[in-house]
Design a protein that fits this description.
The chain is built from four helices and no strands. By secondary structure, the chain is mostly helical. The model has no long low-confidence stretch (mean pLDDT 85). It is 63% helix and 0% strand. The chain has a domain at 25-76. It comes from Cladophialophora chaetospira. InterPro entries: Clr5_dom. Residues 14-66 form the Clr5 domain. This is Clr5 domain-containing protein.
Length: 78
Amino acid sequence: MGTKRPSGGSWASAAEWERYQSTITDMYIDQNLTLNAVIGKMKTEHGFYATKTMYKRRFEKWGAEKYLKALMFSRFSV
């Protein structure tokens, strides 16, 4: 993925990240979509442009961990 957004313009702002936080985390964690699928859907359905690295940093900031539920379940279901 390049560093320039297609068609010019700017990358997602902090306000846009906050606006779409629940949408993004729902697709990635609850719907179990891949990160590439989330990126594609956000581009086509919402006009939201961000790199894979931007998403990963934002997930870290939000404390969103995709496999945490499975890991916690497997540790405590012995």
